[in-house]
Amino acid sequence: MKYIVAVIQPDRLDEVLDRLTEREIHLVTVSNILGRGRQKGISEVYRSHKEAGSLLKKVKLEIAVNEAFVKPTIDAIMGGARTGQIGDGKIFVLDLPECIRIRTGETGGIAIG
Description:
Blueprint: E1 2-8, H1 13-22, E2 29-35, E3 44-46, E4 49-51, E5 56-65, H2 70-81, E6 89-95, H3 109-112
């Protein structure tokens, strides 16, 4: 089992969700977050002074999948989120040692769904 965390541009969320749905990946948690990457936010000029960039709006997706769905999930996120511009985001793939469905007590890959 793997836990996939992706940070993407907010305007790419619908495209990513559509691509995940095409691959029958439906269990997704989405959060609005703030962050910055290599672009270090956006610099603005205010009253002739350049001010340091601030945090940018991003979207975080969290998806728990069984091994067979790791590559399709990554491909869907990359295909839907990629614009070729700085700030497209990142994908993190973590080992998921345990998953428990609260309602039934099922554990492991069965609990993921």
